[in-house]
Design goal:
single chain; alpha+beta; Nuclear Transport Factor 2, Chain: A; 4-stranded antiparallel β-sheet; 2 helices
Length: about 100
């Protein structure tokens, strides 16, 4: 999760696509020029250890969009694929 957040910060679309499950991966990300990611808070996790094949990460990421502050809350789902963790999908919006 932290590496994917860092990829959003630096605009590394290639890394984001490589770490996205092929069944749910979009053809492109479409990163916005005016979007700046400014903070990540991990709120919780389930499973996701070396002994698991699935896991979730609940997080809040802060950003500015053309100077306007905002935040994204998501529960992200990950699975192991060929030994690597990949992003499957997520649910956004505060519970």
């Amino acid at each position: 999760m932290r590496s994917r957040y860092s990829a959003f910060v630096v605009g590394d679309e290639g890394y984001l696509l490589r770490t996205w499950h092929p069944d749910t991966r979009p053809p492109g990300i479409g990163l916005e020029d005016g979007m700046r990611w400014v903070g990540l808070e991990i709120l919780g996790t389930t499973e996701g250890s070396a002994f698991h094949q699935t896991g979730t990460v609940t997080f809040r990421a802060r950003y500015t969009d053309n100077g306007q502050p905002g935040s994204l809350y998501e529960v992200s789902r990950f699975v192991r694929l060929d030994g690597d963790w990949v992003y499957v999908d997520g649910d956004t919006g505060e519970p």
